[in-house]
Amino acid sequence: MVKICCIGAGYVGGPTMAVIALKCPNIQVAVVDISTARINAWNSDTLPIYEPGLDEVVKKCRGKNLSFSTDVEKHVAESDIVFVSVNTPTKTQGLGAGKAADLTYWESAARMIADVAKSNKIVVEKSTVPVKTAEAIEKILTHNSKGINFSILSNPEFLAEGTAISDLLNPDRVLIGGRETPEGKKAIEALRDVYAHWVPVDRILCTNLWSAELSKLAANAFLAQRISSVNAMSALCEATGADVSQVAHAVGKDTRIGPKFLNASVGFGGSCFQKDILNLVYICECNGLPEVATYWKQVIKVNDYQKTRFVNRIVSSMFNTVSGKKIAVLGFAFKKDTGDTRETPAIDKIFNDMQKPAFVFDGRNVVDAEKLRKIGFIVYSIGKPLDDWLKDMPAVA
Ligand code: NAD
């Protein structure tokens, strides 16, 4: 029986391994983490993360071919394939601070694998890492390998939080990068066999290591770039009387462009887009490509501009000061799946209790602005024709 171990029981490691366990009953899957609290939660009835469908998958497999443990070294030593899905945040200090990915957790995981391994292993980069990380990891693993053979693969994860289980069950593609050597090809095949239990083989893309590593950063940069593009248009819509939803609809009907990721909003959030683009910018700079770095940096600048613009709109509408005023934030999560306020009856209740004039600033264009206006609210919706009040109180960027 093939044994898989995944280091890092987070938003990626937990759901990904649960789906592998579900689809591959002949594979033993252990998810390990240094955080006792996280592992305890994975072993309880209240999982540490919420994803639609995750509970059912975990309940089906836990105790059969899926386990969660803090005994990291034991499970790594026993496994044939080790996924590393630890966090790779933006560095806060030292060389590349504020941009480069912090690979501290990755490095310590790699050193531990090298220390405890007693048999050949395939080590899979599941975390999002800078292109060329596999080269450094290989050096760490082979430096102390006692004759053990390590094959490194890059298998970046494209799931989106909120739809992780359906993304994993039915992925647009699975990407596997490896060395173009006989050992590298064998390792690619071994991992492809795992995914082939449920993913059609034409959706399993095999590339060299660097293409796989870079593709993840490129995909997130392209997705974020679409958000910043439509958000930049939303500012122009407000200035001209155009409606950003109508513009996005018309633009997205072009099959070369497509309709997805064209919703104007208060900007992208979450743990990945900003971190990965900053990382991409840093890699471009390090490779002597300042023009390319500047191009991608602009995606983040527009995102920051959109957030600032939204806040300025709030402050200027309320007579340029919010001191002493109470502001309620509805929908604090970064995804509509968890922060949807449509049709909530609470909004009418709220109006009666509010000081007048009462405002709603909709950063995701999810509330029914017309209904709210009928109740008496002044409503600001990003990229939409402005209420008279807002026209009289122009926001300063
Ligand atoms: P996370 O912070 O939720 O989980 C990482 C886990 O790794 C933590 O529980 C931490 O305790 C554990 N860990 C760190 N060092 C360890 C070590 N040495 N040994 C054992 N456990 C260790 O992170 P995440 O959201 O799952 O992201 C993981 C990686 O996947 C990141 O590189 C991220 O960029 C990437 N990614 C994330 C998403 C997403 O939607 N969250 C999607 C695709 C890719």
TrEMBL record:
Keywords: NAD, Oxidoreductase. GO terms for biological process: glycosaminoglycan biosynthetic process. Pfam families: UDPG_MGDP_dh, UDPG_MGDP_dh_N. SUPFAM superfamilies: 6-phosphogluconate dehydrogenase C-terminal domain-like, NAD(P)-binding Rossmann-fold domains, UDP-glucose/GDP-mannose dehydrogenase C-terminal domain. Residues 3-186 form the UDP-glucose/GDP-mannose dehydrogenase N-terminal domain. It catalyses: UDP-alpha-D-glucose + 2 NAD(+) + H2O = UDP-alpha-D-glucuronate + 2 NADH + 3 H(+). Residues 210-304 form the UDP-glucose/GDP-mannose dehydrogenase dimerisation domain. This is UDP-glucose 6-dehydrogenase. It comes from Gossypium trilobum.
